[in-house]
Structure formats: C-alpha cells, structure tokens
C-alpha cells in the first residue's frame, strides 16, 4: 500500500478516486485507479482485495471530498476539511507498512484500517496541506461543459479551471465557436457558406 506519498500525488489520487467513485463505482474501476497510483496488496499478485462494501463506503467519502473540491472559497474549503479531519482522522503516525515502502505519514487508525477510512483521511490530509501551502481551494470542479470532474490543484500558479488540457482545449474551442456565432446572429443565407 501507499507507494506514492508526495502531497501532490496524494491530492491527485484523492481527485481521481473521487471522480471514479462518483461516476463509475465498480470494484474493477476503483482498483484500476488505485493501481495507477502504485497501490498494491501484500500478495504476489498485488490484488487489493477491494470489495463492493469497501467501494460503497468509499463512495460516501467521495461525496464529502467532492464538497471540498467544489468549495466556493478557501474559508469554506478549510471548514469542510477541518470537519472531515475532526470526524475521521487519528493522531498522525509514520509507517513503512512493514518495510514495504519508505516512511510516510498516515492519519488513519492503523495500517489495516478500512479502505474508506484510509481514502478519506489521506485525502483530507493532502488537501489540507495544499490549502495551507497555496491559501486557496485545493482544487476545483472542471468548468468544461458536460465534464464536472473534480481535480486537485497543486501547482501554486494561476488557479486551474479544467481537469485536463483536453477539457481546457475543448472549452476554448467551444468559446471561440460561441463568440463567432454571436458575431453573426441568425441563420446564414445559403450563399454565405464558407467554400
Ligand atoms: Zn474536464
């Protein structure tokens, strides 16, 4: 468990898990995202042993985390994160998972805590660190039409509005088309079609 521990990786993992849990909460899909972030079970196959009950509980946590990504401002995000940490987090502790990883911080109860507890506490911790680093909401909800995917924003540069370069491009093209349509209102005469 827990191979990539940078705040950035943990915050991105929080956003990607939130997205998959709310959109496509199948055990296979959620396991795929966990594998992509380096999570491996203890056995040789690396199977995570994730169950439908785990995913259902994780989905509840995802709903809470989505509120943080959707927060209107930094104060609201901080209030929501404080509430999550007060409810779910335990005293910070360092672990290597019995030598299977480098030392890193956990705020769940123990190394064998349920997936939902691990997901909620590790996500809240990473998002809280990002918030304190950059003094703003630690992510957002993609502004591209029809996307609404949550994303983490760990850059510290100008705040992002889109989950991905793909959505940013799509929104720019749509905006350009809308402006052109606005500049030439009404149906075009047949003879006015571009060649
Ligand atoms: Zn998007």
UniProtKB/TrEMBL annotation:
Composition-biased stretches (Low complexity): 181-195
Matches recorded under InterPro entries: ABATE, ABATE_dom_sf, Znf_CGNR
Alphabetical list of Pfam families matching this protein: ABATE (PF07336), zf-CGNR (PF11706)
Annotated Zinc finger CGNR domain residues: 141-180
Region (Disordered): 174-195
SUPFAM superfamilies attached to this UniProt entry: Jann2411-like (SSF160904)
Protein name stated in the entry: Zinc finger CGNR domain-containing protein
């Amino acid at each position: 468990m827990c191979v990539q521990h940078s705040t950035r990786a943990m915050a991105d993992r929080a956003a990607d898990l939130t997205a998959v849990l709310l959109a496509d909460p199948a055990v296979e899909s959620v396991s795929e995202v966990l594998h992509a972030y380096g999570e491996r079970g203890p056995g040789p196959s690396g199977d995570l042993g994730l169950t439908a009950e785990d995913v259902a509980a994780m989905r509840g946590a995802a709903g809470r985390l989505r509120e943080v990504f959707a927060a209107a401002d930094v104060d609201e995000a901080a209030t929501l994160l404080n509430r999550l940490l007060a409810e779910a987090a335990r005293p910070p502790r360092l672990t290597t998972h019995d030598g299977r990883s480098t030392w890193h911080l956990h705020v769940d109860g123990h190394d064998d805590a349920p997936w939902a507890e691990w997901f909620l506490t590790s996500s809240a911790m990473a998002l809280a660190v990002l918030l304190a680093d950059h003094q703003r909401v630690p992510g957002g909800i993609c502004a591209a039409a029809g996307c609404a995917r949550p994303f983490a924003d760990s850059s510290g540069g100008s705040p992002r509005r889109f989950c991905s370069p793909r959505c940013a491009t799509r929104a720019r093209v749509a905006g350009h088309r809308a402006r052109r349509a606005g500049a030439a209102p009404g149906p075009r005469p047949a003879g006015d079609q571009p060649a």
